[in-house]
Amino acid sequence: MSAIRGWSAVSIIGRWHLATSSHVVVTVNTFKKTSSV
Fold first, then answer.
1. Closest by alpha carbon to 10, among 22, 18, 27?
2. Most exposed among 3, 7, 14, 28, judged by the fewest C-beta atoms under 10 Å?
3. Rounded to 10 degrees, what is the CA torsion of 28, 29, 32, 36?
4. Helical residues (DSSP H) of 1-37, grouped into ranges
């Protein structure tokens, strides 16, 4: 059971990391566009 819990925790952290990373990329890209104009 502990292995399943550990895997679910890893998947949750992985999803959160992916969502945060994509949000950061979008924010940086938007900032670059506005600063270049």
1. 18
2. 3
3. -170
4. 2-36
- Per-residue pLDDT of 4-27, as tens digits, reads 888 898 899 999 999 999 999 999
Q: Output the pLDDT for position 26.
A: 94
Q: Where are the beta strands (DSSP E) in the chain?
A: none
For 11, the token pair is 């998947």
Residue 5 or residue 32, greater confidence: 32
Tokens of 10: 């890893």
Question: How far apart are the two ends of the chain, measured CA to CA in Å?
Answer: 54
